[in-house]
Amino acid sequence: MAAPLDRELEDLPPALRWREWMRRVEAVLFASAAPVAREDLARVVGQGVAVDLLVADLAAELEDRSYEVARVGAGFLLRTRPAYAPAIRAAAETGAPATGLSGQDIAVLAAIAYHQPISRDGLKDIFGKEIGRDLIGRLSERGLIATGPREPRRGAPYTFVTTDAFLAAFGLETLRDLPDPEALEDAGLTPPDGGSAA
Amino acid sequence: MQIPQVAPRADDPAPLPLPGWARPASADGAEEAAFRAGAALLALIQAAGAAGAGQGVPHPLWRDRLALAAAARGVAMSGRAEGEAALRDAVHLLRPGDHPGPAGAVFRLWSRAVARPLGPDALAPLLDPLPAALGADALRPGPGTPVARAARALAAALAHAPGAETQALILADATLSRAAGQDRLLPCLSLALTPRDLRLDEAALRASCHRALIAAAAQALPMAADLARRAARLRAVAPRLRAKAAARAVELFLSRDALPPAALTFMSDRAARRLCDRLVDLGALRELTGRDAFRLYGL
């Protein structure tokens, strides 16, 4: 078993200690694909150290880099700056979003995002067909959705809600940043009946 | 379902409605609104007091139900359709490990905000992503009227995180409550501020807060009076209940907006259901959902 992490770093002078904590925060964020909660970051630095200040210093240090610290929901994430999206796309030649989801998966995810909390029956009403457990499984495996409150009817079925990882994956800060459905309709991007059934 | 009317009695220790001179008039300018807001704040904190007019009010329940109203308003502000009933469901139909969803999360935050005494440890975790300094300022004595201080805190919070309206409003009402000498948060401004108000600069926001406080009193005081009467009724019938744990159940119902029978963990499931139904028959409790299953009870 590995030795417990030295959090306090008491043998370092204060300035170096702070730098080392910043690097640890950076390393943890770099290694994680999902947002990392502040409490989790607090576990790798000294007791009672203000994680927000470390993150702010890290963000300042990354100012001229192609990636940045983003605040997502209740956590933090390292991500490339939007300006480099064309370069990344050109290099990776990925036609589909990096989430590795199909169009149908994304459609169901969008329905959950707009209508949450929603059960599989609710999704069935929207799409006019049964939504398979494997599709739901794919979304929840990627941490994009989680189970929400039960529906108050026989069998107390699960509902689904989106997670902070969902916000992170689509570059949203809150659900409020979802495109306004009425605005999409006005722009002619969706049919007025909302029938986006794939 | 027939809901028994609880008639007011002369000796009710219920808060009084605002007198006519404290109510808003259509010709009110900023000065009149500020004056009436002062009267409204005094009436609200008297109703929240444990003596005098506020004596008969079940305070924890009142705050919890005001929290529900504030949450419902906040949820509507963020463009979501969930009403108070859906918010109750989102919180009460949650099982361990489940996520409350966006609307349920707002109600849960508000519920927590009113449940514990105002202190740095209780407030700080509720205000994320706002800077901790704003929360600390809310609890410190400072210059200015309670409303001016609340408006300043609200403006600062919104400038820092425009999307975090729920947290900003919790901060504003915490500031107002503490500046008015309260040791618990009473949702007030959040009952009446509009999305438009939240985009104003600090001076205009302060004027809106005065108006919001008057509107909040008009909503919260009748609610307190109604709950005081219902609480008196529940306390009056409690001795007639044979169930051993009835007194504990009564205290729970006097402290929460709504509860499923399963929340009475100190009784068997069946006994809890029977007790709730009996209290409904006695006109001391209401079933709030109108459903046959997954019922929620409250005053």
What's the arrangement of secondary structure elements?
The complex is a heterodimer of chains A (198) and B (299).
Chain A: H1 14-31, E1 36-37, H2 38-42, H3 51-61, E2 67-72, E3 75-80, H4 85-92, H5 103-115, H6 120-127, H7 133-141, E4 145-147, E5 160-162, H8 164-169, H9 181-186
Antiparallel strand pairs in A: 1-3, 2-3, 4-5
Helix pairs in contact in A: 1-3
Chain B: H1 30-47, H2 59-77, H3 84-92, H4 101-115, H5 120-127, H6 132-139, H7 146-160, H8 165-179, H9 202-237, H10 246-253, H11 269-281, E1 286-287, E2 297-298
Antiparallel strand pairs in B: 1-2
Helix pairs in contact in B: 1-9, 2-4, 2-9, 3-4, 5-6, 6-8, 7-8, 7-9
What do you see in this structure?
The complex is a heterodimer of chains A (198) and B (299). Chain A is mainly alpha-helical and 198 residues long. Chain A has nine helices and five strands; from the N terminus they run αβααββααααββαα. Chain A has a three-stranded antiparallel β-sheet with strand order 1-3-2. Chain A has a two-stranded antiparallel ribbon with strand order 4-5. In chain A, a hairpin with a 2-residue loop joins strand 2 (67-72) and strand 3. Chain B has a two-stranded antiparallel sheet with strand order 1-2. In chain B, helix 1 (30-47) packs parallel to helix 9, helix 6 packs parallel to helix 8 and helix 7 packs antiparallel against helix 8. The longest helix of chain B is centred in the C-terminal third of the chain and has 36 residues, at 202-237. Chain B is globular and about 55 Å long. Chain B starts with 29 loop residues before the first helix and ends with a strand. Classes of the chains: A mainly alpha (198), B mainly alpha (299). The A-B interface holds A 38, 52, 71, 74, 116-117, 146-154, 156, 158-159, 161, 163, 173-177, 180 and B 78-79, 89-95, 97-102, 104, 128-129, 131-132, 163, 289, 291, 293-294.
